[in-house]
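Query form — protein Ion-translocating oxidoreductase complex subunit D

QUESTION: What is the three-dimensional structure of this chain?
INPUT:
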Amino acid sequence: MALPRITSPHAKGNNRTQQVMLQVLLATLPGVLALTWQFGPGTLINLVWASACALGFEAAILALRQRPVGFFLKDYSALVTAVLLALALPPYSPWWLTLVACGFAIVFGKQLYGGLGQNPFNPAMIGYVVVLVSFPLAMTSWPAPHTVGLLDGLQHIFGLAALPDGWTQATALDALKTNKSLTIDELWAQHPAFGHFGGVGAEAINLAFLAGGLYLLYRRLFSWHAPAGMLVSLTLMSLLFWNGSGSDSHGSPLFHLLSGATMLGAFFIVTDPVSGATSNLGRLIFGVGVGVLVYVIRAWGGYPDGVAFAVLLMNLAAPTIDYYTRPRTYGHRKPTRGFRMGE
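ANSWER: The structure tokens for Ion-translocating oxidoreductase complex subunit D are given below.
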């Protein structure tokens, strides 16, 4: 029987991981620009500080483990973790918040399990959830768009001054979560956080991350299964439980797609090849599970946005998903279920 000739995974050289990480960093650029346009230089400051923290923690742990520091830093995986964390954290987050998030992401989310390729959970989401649970006030202090300058932002980040109350506001997901009496139309008209379909600024930011995600799909850095599963299931859940503009409404499908960290999660988090499912069917199931859990947490949970919690919960389920979605063994008509002597 003639076997097909298939290119091996290492055909592009020893720096394949580095190339992939660089492409991911490039794809985040539209989102970085959108966040900077909406909230000022806080996102850029977060990026620089988070990158320094993550690389420092990575180098320290590698040195303690007596591993070649330069070799592993050059794969840029720690830098990607730092960038995703910086994009998820509120702009102008205090320096210590970013430091704690990066420390937990690198040490407990990645290196504790042996480094890249062995972590069962998404490192960036580990760091994000730790600071979200530990410091909820700091994690919900989002600035109002177009209000903070560079000097004021630096002073706030490094503890030299606090931002005035008028410069911070609840996000659209926060406002919808705490709404008890106003209809959606009234809430939309009265609250400054709401835009055309989602939150002010969040619409453009989510569309920017969508553009970056489509670029990664075009470059075939991941398959469409996990992002499509998440976005379709989130849309169906929000459509199923959407009751129009009543005071108990949980928001329209467009609202959920263009608010919070939806597109960042769909294209940059659930597509993690290490902590997610491995087969195409498994990735689809993984994405569907994340989308359902995001809506459940947003609508009935204790947090306004549930992307990080949903991803970590599905990371726990990924081995089980892989077990039941194993692809057909090459050369066999059906998946092998066991082994008998003589076969």
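ADDITIONAL NOTE: The beta strands are 142-143, 168-169.
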